[in-house]
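Question (not urgent): is this output format expected?
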Amino acid sequence: MAKLNPVAYFRQVKAEMKKVTWPTRKETTVSTIAVFIMVTIAAIFLFTADQIIAFLVQFIIGLGG
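Got this back:
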């Protein structure tokens, strides 16, 4: 197992952090809005599917009872 030199480790971390491309404020805002829209669409879809399935189950149980 290789021994880690803390100074060399942090030097490598600093070098890697310089390679990172950070998003702009506009990109972050647009991405956040897109996530909120997709979550809302998914929630509406799942709510609707749940209501339809609940209705069908109640209908089937009502016929059997």
